[in-house]
Amino acid sequence: MAIYHLKVKTISRKKQQNVVASAAYRSGEALYCERTKETKYYSRTVQPETHILAPSEAPSWVFRRQDLWNEVERFEKRGNSRLAREVVVAIPNELSEEQQRELVLTFTHDTFVQQGMIADVAIHRDDKNNPHAHILLTTREISQDGFVKKKNRDWDKKENLLAWREAWAKYANLSLEKENVQERIDHRSYEERGIELLPTKHVGYKGHQLEKRGIRTETEEYNRRVQAYNQRLISLQEKRQLLVKEQQKKETDSISKVEISVKGYVALHKKIELVTKQQERLQDNKSKQKLHSYTWLKEQIETSAYRQLEEKNLHVYIQEQPMELQGEYSVRMYEKMKELQTEDMVSLVEAVERDMVMEKVESHLKQSVTYERLQSHVVLLDRWEKSMQKQQNDGRISDTRFVSNMNILQAQRGDTKQAIQWYELQAMSYLSRQGYSVYLHDWKEEKHPEIAIQLLEEMKQSPSLSMGMIVQRVKENEVLSEAQKIIRKKVTIDAIDKRRKQLHKWKVAEQKQKRSERVEHIIEQAKVLVKARKILVERCEQELKQYPKTQGVIQSLGMTENSPVMSKWLSWKQETGRDVTEEESMSYVTKLSLQQKEEKILQEAKQVLRKEVTYHNVSVAIDQLQEQLTNTPIKIILDEARTKRMAYELAIERAGEYQKLSSKWRKTSSHQYQLEKLKTWLTQKGIDVNNLAYSLQRMKWNVGKIEKEALRKERIAEVQLPLIQQAKKVLEEQAIRYVGETYPELKDLYTHRHLLSQKERQVLVQMKLWNEESGTVYDFVNRQGNLEELQDKIIRKKLHVKQSISHVSAVVQKFAKVHQAEQVLAQAEEEKKELETKGNTFKRVVLRDQTLLKEYQAVQERIEKAKEVLQLKQELVKENGEARQAELEELKLSYHQFQEKENRLDGLLEVSDILERTRQKMQQEAKEREYEHQQEIRRKKMKHRGLEL
């Protein structure tokens, strides 16, 4: 029977108690105490059911039992500190385990957690007749940053204890009433209730154990005497009589003969439709007989199902349906009644309507129904509605068709929303049955269905996590979802960092414009991103604890949990949907780090090239840079720059001496001699003594020019060329890995990559590019003939393009000649007019001046030649010069592309031979390695025997 028991006690250092040990004892888990450096573990035959409840603002680490109580031990400094408060309650045995769980968690949440405490709940069922719960409570309130410094002394007041006792009785009685249990418990004493009964004493676990071993205790003896006394004073409550229903009447002959099932009924309905069409088309007696037979059988099934429902008073719902649907509803309800083994009208109606809605929705989706697909379908219907409204506004769809489509859309939307509501109700019902509905109190009521679905999904994905951790994970997922809306792509640490930088720039710009509302909005978004980043980092840290070897790989690679690689690793682990092995984890992290290094190299190479990093561009750039270094060796340029700099500095010094001597008013013969000597030296160096400043500046420019060239060459030799060579190697390594992963016969190619020559590497790159462009995995060995045919086509196309280039180039050259002739003609006409402007002067002077006459004749000849060239303009009347120039550029580009394809095909035609040689090299090296391995084993054996090989 249900009994009342609630006991409150404290766990303190004054009693030489350890809260980590207490939590380990009550939870049955092995917990490591950081203060004592010991692992606390107490084995139990029946593992307790444990939960951790915390306020919504609590950090995620409080849901990890070991971290929680170690933090309490660390935070409490005094030697007599009260570490925790424990509440022990006896749970009514009349309730199921799920109902017991819901009762304890609801009571704990409403009574303690809402006041700011963290509750560590352990439900013990070692003795089936004595289920009870231990509730460990923190003595301090919690914030996002941890425990607050000041304890809440209100929790120690007697009024609180009395309120807790009353609350437990209230919650327990509500649960008993909900399950139609007559028993009730009362927190008041017999004296307070005016009952002349004696109270019993609490026996406890130790007393029960002694009684089991046959050892009588004083408490048990006292309780027996009290119970005997109480038995004489009170009357036993009358036990409820179980009503036994009479045996149901035997099924009618029609029911026994006709098998009623929805599947058969639907198949029969389809047959009737098919035979009806056939009978209308053929008008034969055979089809008519079939139709009559099927129709009679259908009516028998409907009648039998309806009669059975009528006998159980379940036909009321059927009568409310349209006449044409009553038969189908009867069959469906009858089958559900047999399937669910219930006669509850509400349950049967819900089941029938749910099945019919799900069948409709499945026909809409054309695939199996899931909650995610239903949500996506709602979004799709919204888009369809907007599209139809736009088409109607544009006049692209008739009103009749618009109304018809809208009716279909609304019907689908209604069915889909009904299915969504059913999923949500199922989730809510499951949580309630399992006693987990208390966890929904942290959200607004309108969000409970959606959160219930998320909780169930997390429970499926992470069955090993406690319910408190699952709730915290759902809250974190909400933050990540909000962050995804801000980032507008997958949430990773790298994406968050990039978006935060963008928000910072945006905030600075808005602050300059003094837009305070936008600034506040940006700050709120930044806070969400900070929370999301913290969540990802914590998840990485927690997940990595399960993979110590992976942590070692990370440390050896110089990465931390905060790196973008770790965020990608976490996403990969979640997407796998299973527990990955340590080897898989290490392999993936190594692969990610390699990709990160390669991406960094390619990004830096792109900055140097200032265009896309392709194998062709990289190879061309390497040739150009090497040619620059070969034409003018860097050593020669550096020596020349050094010599020029020394000469410039010496020239500055000599010019200064020259100016100093020149400025003297009295000059001796020695001064004159020195001046002449300095002047001669400066003149030899190309410095004009009359314009020293300009000459020295020009000399400085020349020195700077040479030094810049030297620095450019030095940068090419030390930075650019090595970087681009690295980029080329990266592209080759990527191609080798791709070929090894794509072609099974070359799976060990990456291991033996040192055997490949430069030409073979180049061909592998071409294989990768070919597959990426074609979107398939090409069989280069067995389809060489296709490549040869393709090469012939490309050669023919290239020749055709070359001819087109010649033709268009000739037209473009004519346009260029005409344009040049027009310019020459305009200039010559202007010169001719200048010579003829003076009229009579021309006759009197120009005709006598033979030089001017020759100039006039030369101008006239230029005009005539230009006019001859301009005759080509008539041929180009129908041509467009700019269009022809653009066409020429396109043709040259096409020719260049065909040339590249031809060169690539030249290499791909050798793939078969190259792959064969590569396989032979790999086999030879494998044999050599095996031989060396066997020799090493033999040497060790001989050495063990004391012999030398």
UniProtKB/TrEMBL annotation:
<feature type="compositionally biased region" description="Basic residues">
    <location>
        <begin position="938"/>
        <end position="949"/>
    </location>
</feature>
<dbReference type="InterPro" id="IPR005053">
    <property type="entry name" value="MobA_MobL"/>
</dbReference>
<protein>
    <recommendedName>
        <fullName>MobA/MobL protein domain-containing protein</fullName>
    </recommendedName>
</protein>
<feature type="compositionally biased region" description="Basic and acidic residues">
    <location>
        <begin position="922"/>
        <end position="937"/>
    </location>
</feature>
<keyword id="KW-0184">Conjugation</keyword>
<comment type="similarity">
    <text>Belongs to the MobA/MobL family.</text>
</comment>
<dbReference type="Pfam" id="PF03389">
    <property type="entry name" value="MobA_MobL"/>
</dbReference>
<feature type="region of interest" description="Disordered">
    <location>
        <begin position="922"/>
        <end position="949"/>
    </location>
</feature>
<feature type="domain" description="MobA/MobL protein">
    <location>
        <begin position="18"/>
        <end position="213"/>
    </location>
</feature>
<feature type="coiled-coil region">
    <location>
        <begin position="219"/>
        <end position="246"/>
    </location>
</feature>
<keyword id="KW-0175">Coiled coil</keyword>
